UniProtKB/TrEMBL annotation:
PANTHER family recorded: BIOTIN PROTEIN LIGASE, BIOTIN--PROTEIN LIGASE
Gene Ontology molecular-function annotations: biotin--[biotin carboxyl-carrier protein] ligase activity; transferase activity
Organism, as annotated: Intestinibaculum porci
Lineage: Bacteria, Bacillati, Bacillota, Erysipelotrichia, Erysipelotrichales
Name recorded for this polypeptide: BPL/LPL catalytic domain-containing protein
A GO BP annotation: protein lipoylation
InterPro entries: aa-tRNA-synth_II/BPL/LPL (IPR045864), Biotin_CoA_COase_ligase (IPR004408), BPL_LPL_catalytic (IPR004143)
Length: 224
């Protein structure tokens, strides 16, 4: 099922309000979100009709980070189809030329048991104020066709062995070759994303594993 709104508060919020009546794998798209938001309540403000804003409802119980990573890699592959080289900046952003082009917000809902997981995606396509697909593509981009392509790949990745998906994700990590200050271990380099939802970092003397959602890249320093 695909539901499209001219304007709404938030596609994630719409699904959350209606999760009991919406079927598995409902896609909700909006041309404009009045209260779009990202991780840690960051505001996602997108001009009307310029970007791809949609959410997917999934009722199969998987770990939220599995859905996030499958969505992230699906978006990287979709951008490759337009000859745009993108990387995944953990835990939930897609970058092109050191700038954020896409954000993902994944929410698992529980009330008297598991209800479902919502994967919200905001991808800059024609945004005139931020890096967008149109900066790299001369042809017209059909937003709904792009959404369906991302969703089809996302569904395929969710059915694959996740260890294989993680191996591909590690090849397009934004962290490759970068140094991070990470107290109390000093400067660390990225080793790999692990299929258990952790990231392995190396400070030169030992490998440190931390949960993916605890990564903060605000203080990223230099390339190795």
């Amino acid at each position: 099922m695909i539901i499209t709104f001219e304007e709404i508060d938030s596609t994630n919020s719409y699904i959350e309000r209606n999760i009991q009546t919406l079927p598995d794998h409902t896609l909700v798209r909006a041309l404009y979100q009045r209260f779009g938001h990202g991780r840690r309540d960051h505001i996602w403000d997108s001009p009307k009709g310029e970007n791809l804003l949609f959410s997917i409802l999934l009722k199969s119980p998987k770990r939220p980070f599995v859905y996030t990573m499958c969505a992230a890699y699906a978006i990287v592959l979709a951008l490759r189809d337009y000859h745009i080289a993108a990387s995944i900046k953990f835990p939930n952003d897609i970058y092109v030329d050191d700038q954020k082009i896409c954000g993902i917000l994944t929410t698992a809902l529980y009330e008297n048991g598991y209800q479902g997981t919502i994967v919200g995606i905001g991808l800059n396509v024609y945004d005139r104020l931020h890096v967008s697909m149109s900066d790299y593509v001369d042809e017209e981009i059909d937003l709904e066709k792009l959404m369906l392509s991302i969703d089809e790949t996302f569904q395929k990745l969710c059915r694959q062995d996740f260890d294989q998906v993680v191996a591909h994700i590690n090849q397009c990590s934004y962290l490759q070759g970068k140094i991070l200050p990470y107290a109390p271990y000093g400067n660390v380099s990225f080793d790999c994303l692990n299929s258990d939802g952790t990231v392995s970092l190396n400070n030169g003397t030992k490998v440190i594993k931390i949960p993916l959602n605890e990564i903060n890249l605000g203080n990223m320093t230099q390339k190795l």
